[in-house]
Amino acid sequence: MNTELFIAKRLFISKENKNAISNSVIKIAIIGIALGMIIMILSIAIVTGFKQEVRRKVVGFGSHIIITNYDSNLSYETAPIKKNQSFYPDIESVEGIKHIQTFAVKAGIIKTKEDIQGVVLKGIGYEYDWSFFKNNIIEGENFIVDKNLKTDKVLISKYIASLLKLKVGDPLFMYFVQKPVKSRRFEISGIYNTGIEEFDKTFIITDIAHVQKLNDWSNNQVSGFEIIIDDFDNLEKMTSEVFDIVGTIYDENEDQLKVKNIRENYQQIFDWLKLSDTNVWIILGLMLLVGGFNMISGLLVIILERTNMIGILKALGAKNFSIRKIFIYYASFLIGKGLFWGNLIGITLCLLQYYFHIFKLDPASYYIDNVPINLKITHLLLLNTGTLFITTLMLIIPSIIIAKISPVKAIKFT
Fold first, then answer.
1. Who's near 412: CB < 8 A, 6+ residues apart?
2. Is the bond preceding residue 180 a cis peptide, omega within 30 degrees?
3. How far is CA 271 from the centre of its chain?
4. Comparing C-alpha atoms, which of 337, 258, 251, 272 is closest to residue 31?
5. What domain range includes position 194?
6. Quick one: DSSP state of residue 20?
7. Contact 176/108 with Cβ under 8 angstroms?
8. Is residue 162 located within the same domain as residue 40?
9. Is 261 within the bounds of a domain?
């Protein structure tokens, strides 16, 4: 039988503690632990949810890995590469690669009766994965790309539609500055909204055949390939594998290909997301310190209040280490109580936000319109285990005071 644990349990459930002087201090310590856990749960859930949502949108629009001509620069007038490559579409058989698709881009100008707006026409092929846009189309629908029949349908963003006062079914006239100047008439099939202004104010989605014709390319020429992988965590590894397959081809008669991943193409966004990790670690550290010092204060008060009990236990032959264990066990029960209420309230708040989107955000600043939540059991287990371990460890030092209590003096006035 664990005597120290038994005594600690008796102290924890004792009704006598409810009238003790330390009761108020214990309550404050428990509330401190609970508040700390609530803040930590919310911080982890919001930051990981924010990163996940923004990353999903960036990847959904631009894919994980992009293969282009080595001579292409940062402009939207790209050098073409052949669609008929040795790796296309067989690279999909590589483990970790989910899909490969072609694309072509062309800068142009939209003109209405009252306004003009510079945009980029992004052409997609029949093999395009529509899953991202289907979740972000707010009006109308996506169009069908046929290998043998060119469609004039396009997808525009809510930003462009609002700016130019356009709606689904309206004609869209575009002009392309080149020699000679070319124009095209499209029809709006749907309106999308990703919330990422950098994309929404720039891109219009259309049939790749239009871009090929505007660029005077053949059906076998494209701006590049987009590769979607199974797991973002393997991005660097898969980028290296793709490079080994397509980026090491050097032949005077072949295209020189460049392989870049989404993190390299949108480094400023991913660097910004990376900064949020630092903020989370700072919050976790501060909350653990606050909770730990609250429990240290509570334990010191409990020890002082239980001086007589400590003296009696020492007189009966109990060792200092054994008595310290009693109070550390007791403090652990109090920490557990705080963790229980912290988890209950924290998880409830997360679920309310997840299902009802109570707290909103400005999409222009944060890329999303409400506070995202990513609640994982692994995060909760690590938070609770880490908090219990670290705060309990912090209690070892103040428990040393028990060794300085003399049994004679402690029970003198009992």
1. none
2. yes
3. 13
4. 337
5. 71-255
6. S
7. yes
8. no
9. no
Q: Are 357 and 370 in contact (CB under 8 A)?
A: yes
Contacts of 50 (CB under 8 A, 6+ apart): 273, 276, 366, 368, 371, 372
In a domain, 63, yes or no: no
Rounded Cα distance between 54 and 194, Å, is 10
Same domain flag for 101 and 179: yes
Q: Are 69 and 225 in contact (CB under 8 A)?
A: no
Residue 355 belongs to some domain of the structure: yes
Tokens of 302: 């409990």
Tokens of 142: 């996506």
Query: pLDDT, tens digit, for every residue of 181-240?
Result: 899 999 999 999 988 888 999 999 999 999 999 999 999 999 999 999 999 999 999 999
Closest Cα to residue 29, out of 344, 323, 336?
Answer: 336
The total domain count for the chain is 2
Which of 249, 76, 106, 248 is CA-nearest to residue 186? 106
Which residue has 């092929």 as its token pair? 125
- 116 φ/ψ angles, rounded to the nearest 5 degrees: -135, 155
Could you tell me where the beta strands, DSSP code E, fall in 148-275? 153-157, 171-176, 182-192, 203-207, 221-222, 224-229, 257-261
Rounded Cα gap, residues 111 and 181, in angstroms: 14
pTM across the whole model:
0.84
Amino acid at 303: I
- Which of 255, 283, 316 is a domain's end point? 255
